Every structure is written in structure tokens, then in C-alpha cells.
User: Which sequence fits this backbone?
């Protein structure tokens, strides 16, 4: 996982991609739609320490990245 305590940087998204951030039990924490393909960031400082999953969706494809908040 990618450990962070305040900010997670996201690269490789395209305009129209969507992301859903969930905790380990599947509760949705954040939903985000990307308007362009620039590197973006998500502030996670308010989240409790632990493991989170960022699911990215593009058209018919999806992928998940595991994040760790320290």
C-alpha cells in the first residue's frame, strides 16, 4: 500500500474517470469524478488511520488501489 498521513497524489486518470474511496468494510468515504487528466490529490488528513481502497472506473474497466493512512 501507499502510506500517507495527509495527501495522496493520483496520476494516470483521464477526463470522465470516477473514483470511489472505501474503508475496509466497504463503506463509501468519498466519490470523485475527474474533469481532466492532470495529476490530482486527495486530502486524507481527516480520515482515521487504517487501510482504504480507491476504486477507479473508466467506461467498462475498473481497478483498485490499496491505500494506507498513517
Assistant:
Amino acid at each position: 500500500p501507499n502510506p500517507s498521513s495527509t495527501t495522496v497524489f493520483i496520476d494516470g486518470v483521464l477526463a470522465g474517470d470516477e473514483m470511489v474511496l472505501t474503508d475496509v468494510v466497504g463503506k463509501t468515504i468519498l466519490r470523485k469524478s475527474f474533469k481532466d487528466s492532470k495529476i490530482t490529490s486527495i486530502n486524507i488528513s481527516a480520515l482515521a488511520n487504517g487501510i482504504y481502497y480507491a476504486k477507479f472506473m473508466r467506461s467498462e474497466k475498473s481497478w483498485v488501489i490499496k491505500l494506507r493512512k498513517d
